Amino acid sequence: MKKVLYRHLFSKALGLSLLFSPISFYAQEEAAAPTEEVAADVAADTGGDAAKGKQLFNQNCAACHALDRKMTGPALANVETRLADDAGLDREWLYAWVKNSPGVIASGDAYANKIYAEYNQAAMTPFPTLSNQDIDDILAYTAAPAATPAKAATPSGGGDGGQSTSGGISNELILGALALVFGLLVIMLVLVNKTLRRIAEANGIVLEEEKQKRLPLWKAFVKNQFLVLVSVVFLLLASAYFAYGWMMQVGVDQGYAPVQPIHFSHKIHAGDNKIECKYCHSSARVSKTSGIPSLNVCMNCHKSIYQYAGNPEGPSAEDIANGYTNDFYTGEIKKLYKAVGWDEENQKYTGEGRPVEWVRIHNLPDFAYFNHSQHVSVAGIECQTCHGPVEEMEIVEQFSPLTMGWCINCHRETNVKVEGNAYYEAIHEELSKKYGVDKLTAAMMGGLECGKCHY
Amino acid sequence: MASNKKYWKSAAELNPNDSIVEALKHNEFTEQIPVDEFLGDKENLSASNTNRRDFLKYVGFSTAAATMAACEGPVRKSIPYVVQPDRIVPGVANYYATTIADGFDFASILVKTREGRPIKIENNTDAKVNGGANARVQASVLTLYDSKRLQGPSANGESVEWKVLDATVRAKLNSLKGSNKQIVLLTQTYASPSTDKLIAEFKAAYGENVNHVVYDAISEDAALNAYEAAYGERALADYDFEKAGLIVSFAADFLGDWQGGGYDSGYAKGRVPKNGKMSRHIQMESNMSLTGANADKRYPMTPTQQKIALAKLYGKLNGSNVGGGTSDVDEAVDKVAAEIKKAGSKAVVVTGLNDANAQTVVLAINKLLASEAFDAKNPKYVRQGNTAKVTKLVSDMNAGRVGALIMDGVNPVYTLPNSEAFVSGLEKVDLSVAFAFNNDETAQASQYVAAASHYLESWGDAQFKKGQYSLMQPAIRELFDTRQFQTALLTWMGTEKTYYDYIQETWNADILQGGSWNKALQDGVFVASAPAPVEGDASAAAPADAESVEEESTVVPIASAIRSLVNATSGGTELVLYSKVGMGDGRQANNPWLQEFPDPISRVSWDNYVTVSKADAEKWGVDNEMVADGGVNGGYVKLTVDGKVLEKVPVIVQPGQAVGTVGLSYGYGKKAGMQAEMATGVNAYALYTNFSDVQTVTVEKVSGVHEFACIQSQKTLMGRGDIIKETTLEIFNTKDHAEWNPMPHVTLNHQEIPVTSPDADLWDEFDRSVGHHFNLSIDLNACTGCGACVIACHAENNVPVVGKMEMRRSRDMHWLRIDRYYSSEETFEQDNEKKDGMDGLWGEKGSLGGFREMEDPSANPQVAFQPVMCQHCNHAPCETVCPVAATSHSRQGQNHMAYNRCVGTRYCANNCPYKVRRFNWFLYSNNDEFDFNMNNDLGKMVINPDVNVRSRGVMEKCSMCIQMTQKTILDAKRDGRVIKDGEFQTACSAACSSGAMVFGDVNDKESKVAQLKEDDRMYHLLEHVGTKPNVFYHVKVRNTNEA
Question: For residue A367, which residues of chain B lie inside 8 Å, CB to CB?
Answer without folding.
Answer: 899-900, 948
